[in-house]
Design a protein that fits this description.
Blueprint: E1 2-6, H1 10-21, E2 25-29, E3 41-43, E4 50-52, E5 59-61, H2 64-73, E6 76-78, E7 84-87, E8 90-93, H3 98-105, H4 111-121, H5 132-139, H6 141-157, E9 187-191, H7 195-203, E10 208-211, H8 218-222, E11 226-229, H9 233-236, E12 246-257, E13 265-268, E14 277-280, E15 292-302, E16 311-312, H10 316-330, E17 335-337, H11 339-343, H12 349-369
Parallel strand pairs: 1-2, 1-11, 2-10, 7-13, 11-17
Antiparallel strand pairs: 3-4, 5-9, 6-9, 7-8, 12-15, 12-16, 13-14, 14-15
Helix pairs in contact: 1-7, 1-12, 5-6
Bound molecules: uridine-5'-diphosphate (UDP).
Uridine-5'-diphosphate binds at residues 85, 94, 148-149, 152-153, 156, 168-169, 171-172, 267, 269.
């Protein structure tokens, strides 16, 4: 079969690879001039630092299959994300752990004592937290919530944490020990040569053709037996029901001769600091040495038409609109909607890879059951 994949990010690359290995011909287009979507990395020409061009991406997973898969295509080096936050004039360790608690409250609590202490601050009347704020008040209490989460979240999402789902905060652990690893997954690392090299290697297959700088046009789909769409779900339908809300990010780049902040990610919890965090990219590759440094001040705002969509907002009104688009998608034969933008979800990279592998498998099973066979040797249209 001749397959068109729109978008050369992780979803498109993994699905394309699975299909190509099964004998199908894949044409992958991307409007941008690089592969890897928002996990694109490139070396800064001035300093040689490997830049996470669209913001920090750290690969972490509990999924052995996904870990094995990405290690087929890139050499991963150990990396542990140790985030700090500046709030109320002081620097603290994140995610909230025993050091954070003891520093913040000026205590010397041991794990059991800290657990009891935080429990005494938590609002235990909230039995089933539904919103971000309820989740925070239930698990860390008002002081830590105000210092670390309220202002940051207002800046990041542009709305009150009372409007956001608890699931956003559930991404972060609270620990009653000194473990300051941001993620708790078994496997965590960074591809030594960056994500773009990894995605290029996934795409390096004789039955895959990649065309960059190539926006989608509907006539391309007519020439294909099946389309995988990893662009925005509403964009496929020309936004005919309205636009799904996204947050976009602006990065203010600056350089520094030396070590600017001593860590990869410094969050800013205070509402009156306009940016959410500063990332210093050379610290994402701790095995490299660079004299100079490149940092991004990261600002979040509502995405306008033409902006790069980053985070799906998924408030109540978006969810209603999403349901309508999902219905349209289900009534669109021959097109499979995939990935963060195609399914309008906040997806980590490991989940993206797992879902891409499963989608490829499901779709190929359906083709086999329908009697469609791979077209070995035929070039893509
Ligand atoms: N968050 C916060 N303060 C922080 C870090 C995170 O309030 O210092 C909240 C914020 O709402 C954010 C969410 O927790 O959107 C999830 O954080 P994560 O670090 O997973 O966000 P990402 O790196 O994906 O932007």
């Amino acid at each position: 079969m001749n397959i068109l994949l729109v978008g050369a990010g992780l979803s498109g690359a993994v699905i394309g690879r699975e299909l190509a290995e099964a004998g199908h011909h894949c044409r992958i287009i991307d409007a941008r001039d690089h592969v890897a979507g928002n996990c694109h990395t490139e070396r800064d020409p001035e300093t040689g630092v490997m830049m996470h061009v669209y913001g920090p991406h750290i690969f972490h997973t509990d999924d052995q299959g996904v870990w094995d898969y990405v290690n087929r295509f890139a050499r991963f080096l150990p990396f542990q994300n140790r985030v700090k936050t500046t709030a109320q004039g002081r620097v603290y360790s994140l995610p909230v752990n025993l050091l954070t608690i003891n520093q913040f409250f000026g205590t010397t609590l041991r794990p059991d004592e800290a657990r009891a202490f935080i429990q005494s601050k938590a609002d235990t009347r909230i039995s089933d937290p539904r919103t971000f704020e309820e989740q925070a008040l239930r698990f860390v209490g008002p002081d830590l919530y105000e210092a670390f989460f309220k202002g940051y979240t207002e800046k990041q999402w542009g709305c009150s944490p009372t409007q956001l789902p608890a699931s956003i905060l559930q991404r972060l652990p609270v620990r009653f020990n000194y473990d300051d690893n941001y993620f708790f997954h078994r496997f965590q690392g960074m591809p030594a040569e960056g994500y773009t090299a990894m995605v290029q290697s996934i795409l390096d297959h004789p039955r895959i053709t990649v065309q960059l700088g190539t926006p989608y046009s509907p006539d391309m789909a007519e020439a294909a037996d099946h389309v995988f769409w990893s662009g925005p779900l509403d964009g496929y339908f020309d936004y005919r029901l309205g636009r799904l809300g996204y947050r976009t990010l602006d990065f203010e780049r600056f350089t520094y001769a030396g070590d600017y902040q001593g860590c990869a990610v410094m969050n800013y919890g205070d509402r009156d600091v306009p940016y959410t965090r500063i990332t210093e990219h050379k610290h994402f590759s701790p095995w490299e040495t660079h004299e100079g440094s490149v940092c991004y001040r990261e600002y979040s705002r509502e995405a306008e038409p033409g902006d790069i969509p980053y985070y799906p907002i998924r408030l109540v009104q978006e969810k209603a609109l999403l349901d309508q688009y999902v219905q349209l998608a289900q009534q669109t034969p021959g097109v499979t909607f995939v990935g963060r933008l195609g399914t309008y979800r906040y997806l980590d990279m490991d989940v993206t890879v797992r879902e891409a592998l499963e989608t490829a498998n499901t779709v190929m099973t359906a083709w086999r059951e329908a009697g469609a066979v791979p077209t070995f040797g035929k070039s893509p249209s």
